[in-house]
TrEMBL record:
InterPro entries named in the record: Glycg_phsphrylas (IPR011833), Glyco_trans_35 (IPR000811), Pyridoxal_P_attach_site (IPR035090)
Protein name as annotated: Alpha-1,4 glucan phosphorylase
Entry keywords, A to Z: Allosteric enzyme, Carbohydrate metabolism, Glycosyltransferase, Pyridoxal phosphate, Transferase
Function noted in UniProt: Allosteric enzyme that catalyzes the rate-limiting step in glycogen catabolism, the phosphorolytic cleavage of glycogen to produce glucose-1-phosphate, and plays a central role in maintaining cellular and organismal glucose homeostasis.
Pfam assignment, any one: Phosphorylase
Residues that span the membrane, as ranges: none
Swiss-Prot/TrEMBL catalytic activity: [(1->4)-alpha-D-glucosyl](n) + phosphate = [(1->4)-alpha-D-glucosyl](n-1) + alpha-D-glucose 1-phosphate
Cofactor: pyridoxal 5'-phosphate
Keyword match Phosphoprotein: no
Single GO molecular function: glycogen phosphorylase activity
One Gene Ontology cellular component annotation held by this UniProt entry: cytoplasm
Length: 834
């Protein structure tokens, strides 16, 4: 039975558990208490990092008080909750974000200033929590901010990787990877919960038996067990008491030590098991939009799924409701197919451990789960070899075969004799070995499947899930366009612009209702406002130029057009088209007369992004960019007109400097390949314009900002297949300007060109349509240059575009999910719990 304070002590508990006040002296007292007691430092033994830690611990106290209040409130009210399961949360830094969300920034600024530190310096001491690859992981982090801000009863579940996405350094212009051990100096934002832990089984065998009522049943026995321990990461909402939680699991050995081996003198063997268990949550797999079928990755997935479901079920069981009510209490969102084994695991628990019939269990499962698809690229769709799953999770493999059989029997009933359809729809891909198609499993086990932008959701319905739409009906397949949190991506990253908007809109309410931004359109023609708006942009460009000077040594002029492409390196995102365009521009500059040069718009082209360590072509694109940069930046003839920068180690913190400083950003994926993109939204929200293809969320951004305020170019999705076919079978000549660029590379101007041959070789089949799109791309660039020359007209475009971004708040995405898919309502943490 749970402990409760004796009546006489209740008063004491209430009094002393209250959140601390936020006056200057109390903050200073809290800072010094943490510096001296938590960190064992003193006034003569302090440095900036210790000051950051003390501040973080002090802020954390506020988070925990609110977290406790929120949990108490939710356990009393017991509403339906949503569980957002994601193998990635790309959070970045927490201190500045927490201060702003709690509305304590100014308080801490003054209090910390009084102690002798500058809050901005302390904010810079924090290392990023980089537990994700790119857009998918950052989306999960934005969604947590919105869930907290909108008071939804929600939990995030993930893995506490000890190594986040690798750190990228450039050595001789090549990407080299270094481990991201982000926990070296501890992590003040997490609360380790050694009391919240679960066993997770792997391997073993399946036993068939007859139970007391004569039913044939199965149980999974034997094998090896590891322990999952919870680490809680509080997520405060903006201007609300509500503070939700991301629960991150770390793996620990079940038995501390193998004493038998130890006593035999076999020390190595005795620690082997321990190490193996800890390995599970060691490292984040660094692939974006690409599947690599490593056993350890499958172990991570099941480990995560098993611990999370045990935790959810424990919470559900507290209220002793019948199992049939599970879907009314629990909604589970699968962030891509990575947590799909959860569907099989819940079915297993219900039939093997809870004694439900198959049909009862399957009914509960399919009313609990929903699945977000984030890509239609074939190489990114997860499939796991059947022998691998059979070995690691024998009972799950049985259940997958069984549910697939029942599913295909239903397909056969609806489409008798259509054997090709059965082959296409099966969860099992036939071959040697067989594979489990995780997307099919996720779609069959979920009540809703959503894409992440309108075009993408249409593609989901007409390509990978076309047969499933015919079978289940189209209502199951919906769109929820992605969004970004305006708190981090405007209020925090661009305080100048946030302040200007608040001044014009009379307060900060717009940060919780981004549709209010619309009212800023009224100032688009106001020259005074244009000047203030562009002055903020200018200062952000100076801030970026200082950063670039610091990390690369190159000096940039903030008067130039800042042209940015920062995202994971991938052929489908076409950074190579961008660098080929830069080469074309450079060659053209070299051929110009003085008089011609004077009319040129000076440009700074900035790249940033990581390539998967095993992705050879993507790494070669980085080498080409850095090689061209070496030549261009050293050329006095063109230096006024063109600079080229590759910022190393792109991460959330770098994005916060880069995005507010961009005049133009490039989102130039081959049409139909970029599911949504989310940085495109951030750039426009911060007063930059997009040069982009008709792809992903670019399309919806274009609809909102208007065609005059976005630079579109390139082949359309519907044309891509025919163009590929035509290129393949009709000896189509390569675009002449692209040929010129290739000649320039092959001339050796950017160093020994043989190293680039494998990259240039990809242009032969040209799957991503660089040749087709190159001239339209360069023409769009000319439109950009022409537009940038008219300062006032450019400012008007930027203001109008930014003010049109109301739709792209992740608050809107979350409300969409909550109402249409999760069926949950807000539960604000009321005063009696605080
Ligand atoms: C990514 N998908 C897409 O490539 C982006 O377009 C999209 O914005 C984000 O998801 C968020 O929805 C993936 O990372 C994955 F894993 F699906 F390949």
């Amino acid at each position: 039975p749970a402990w409760a304070p004796p009546a006489a002590a209740e008063q004491i508990w209430n009094e002393f558990s209250k959140e601390e006040s936020t006056d200057e002296a109390t903050i200073q007292k809290s800072f010094i208490r943490h510096a001296t007691k938590t960190l064992a430092r003193s006034s003569y033994n302090m440095d900036q990092f210790a000051a950051y830690q003390a501040t973080a611990h002090s802020v954390r106290d506020h988070l925990i008080d609110r977290w406790n209040a929120t949990q108490h409130c939710h356990s009393v009210k017991d509403p339906k909750r949503v569980y957002y399961m994601s193998l990635e949360f790309l959070i970045g830094r927490t201190l500045d974000n927490a201060l702003l969300n709690l509305n304590l920034k100014d308080h801490y600024k003054r209090a910390i200033g009084g102690i002798g530190f500058t809050i901005e310096d302390l904010v810079d001491e924090e290392v990023d929590a980089a537990l994700g690859n790119g857009g998918l992981g950052r989306l999960a982090a934005c969604f947590m901010d919105s869930l907290a801000t909108l008071d939804y009863p929600a939990w995030g579940y993930g893995i506490r990787y000890e190594y986040g996405i690798f750190q990228q350094k450039l050595v001789d212009g090549y990407q080299t990877e270094y481990p991201d051990y982000w926990l070296t100096f501890g992590n003040p934002w997490e609360i380790q919960r050694l009391d919240v832990s679960y066993d997770v089984r792997f391997r073993g065998y399946v036993e068939k038996y007859v139970d007391v009522s004569g039913q044939t049943r199965y149980r999974w026995e034997g094998g090896e067990k590891v322990v999952a321990v919870a680490n809680d990461y509080p997520i405060p909402g903006f201007q609300t008491k509500n503070c939700i939680n991301i629960r991150l699991w770390s793996s620990k050995p079940k038995k501390e030590f193998d004493f038998a081996s130890f006593n035999e003198g076999n020390y190595d063997k005795s620690v082997e098991e321990q190490k193996a268990a800890e390995n599970i949550t060691s490292v984040l797999y660094p692939n974006d939009n690409h599947m690599v079928g490593k056993v350890l990755r499958l172990k991570q997935q099941y480990f995560f799924v098993s611990a999370t479901l045990q935790d959810i079920i424990r919470r559900f069981k507290k209220t002793s409701r019948p199992w049939s009510e599970f879907p009314q209490q629990v909604s589970i969102q699968l962030n891509d197919t990575h947590p799909t084994l959860s569907i099989v695991e819940l079915q297993r628990i219900l039939i093997d451990e809870e004694g439900l019939t198959w049909d009862e269990a399957w009914d509960i499962v399919t009313h609990t789960y929903s699945y977000t698809n984030h890509t239609v690229l074939p190489e990114a769709l997860e499939k796991w070899a059947v022998p691998l799953i059979s070995d690691l999770l024998p009972r799950h493999m049985m259940i997958i075969f069984e549910l697939n059989l029942y599913f295909l029997q239903r397909v056969e009933k609806l489409f008798p004799g259509d054997r090709d359809r059965l082959r296409r729809m099966s969860v099992i891909e036939e071959g040697h070995p067989q594979y489990v198609r995780m997307a099919h499993l996720a779609a069959i086990g979920s009540h809703h499947v959503n894409g992440v932008a309108e075009l993408h959701s249409e593609l989901v319905k007409t390509t990978i899930f076309a047969d499933f739409v015919e079978f289940f009906g189209k209502e199951k397949f919906v769109n929820v366009t992605n969004g970004v949190t305006p708190r981090r991506w405007l209020h925090q990253a661009n305080p100048g612009l946030s302040t200007l908007i608040s001044e014009k809109l009379g307060g900060t309410a717009w940060l919780k209702d981004l549709s209010q931004l619309d009212k800023i359109k009224a100032f688009a023609d106001d020259v005074g406002f244009q000047n203030r708006f562009m002055d903020i942009k200018y200062k952000n460009k100076i801030r970026l130029a200082e950063y670039v000077k610091d990390v690369t040594g190159v000096t940039l002029s903030p008067d130039a057009l800042f042209d940015v492409q920062c995202k994971r390196l991938h052929e489908y995102k076409r950074q190579h088209m961008n660098i080929f365009g830069v080469i074309h521009r450079y060659e053209k500059l070299k051929s110009m007369s003085k008089a011609e040069l004077e009319k040129v718009v000076p440009r700074v082209v900035i790249f940033a992004g990581k390539a998967a360590p095993g992705y050879y072509t993507a790494k070669l694109i980085i080498k080409l960019i850095t090689s061209v940069a070496n030549v261009v930046n050293a050329d006095p003839q063109t230096s006024e007109y063109l600079k080229l920068i590759f910022i190393p180690n792109y991460n959330v913190s770098v994005a916060e400097i880069l995005i507010p400083a961009s005049d133009l950003s490039q989102h130039i994926s081959t049409a139909g390949t970029e599911a949504s993109g989310t940085s495109n939204m951030k750039f426009v929200l911060n007063g930059g314009l997009i040069l982009g293809t008709v792809d992903g969320a670019n399309i919806e951004i274009g609809e909102e900002v208007g065609k005059d305020n976005i630079f579109f170019f390139g082949a359309l999705t519907a044309e891509v297949e025919d163009i590929r076919h035509h290129q393949m079978y009709h000896n189509v000549a390569m675009d002449a300007k692209l040929q010129g660029v290739i000649k320039s590379i092959q001339s050796g101007r950017y160093g020994d060109s043989v190293i680039f041959e494998p990259l240039l070789g990809t242009l032969r089949s040209d799957y991503y349509l660089l040749s087709k799109d190159f001239t339209p791309y360069l023409e769009a660039m000319e439109r950009v240059d022409a537009a940038f020359k008219n300062k006032s007209a450019w400012a008007k475009k930027c203001i109008t575009a930014a003010a049109s971004m109301g739709k792209f708040s992740s608050d809107r995405s979350i409300q969409d999910y909550a109402k249409r898919i999760w069926k949950i309502t807000p539960v604000p943490t009321t005063e009696e719990f605080a």
